[in-house]
Amino acid sequence: xxxxxxxxxxxxxxxxxxxxxxxxxxxxxxxxxxxxxxxxxxxxxxxxxxxxxxxxxxxxxxxxxxxxxxxxxxxxxxxxxxxxxxxxxxxxxxxxxxxxxxxxxxxxxxxxxxxxxxxxxxxxxxxxxxxxxxxxxxxxxxxxxxxxxxxxxxxxxxxxxxxxxxxx
Length: 168
Hints:
41% helix
């Protein structure tokens, strides 16, 4: 816990490209900072949109600049960053950050509670190929947040579930 008694929150995103998940994430981070929370923004990939990067909440991102999940050095950089940041709560936004976070917590040295906020219904082919890993990670997350009832129903039928599944 931070000195103010509020949890330290880490937002972990694949990139800062233009999209609803990215806008939602940086806006939420900005609001939490206004309320005195210690927050960090960890960016796994290289994609960045100027419009997202200039939003309140997108300041001072920690960039890993990793391409894909198949590079061991990317996993090592993520593990080091997660240990260094040492957040109480890690918000993994979508598939790749969830898989990476859960796998690295299993390796050890990461104590963060992990929640995934999932904004997707239709996966890209590259994401579809990781569906089995995504199912595994979702089951091991501490919470999995869906953004609509239809999305929740769709993904539960495909085996994506968690002990706690709040709905926005």
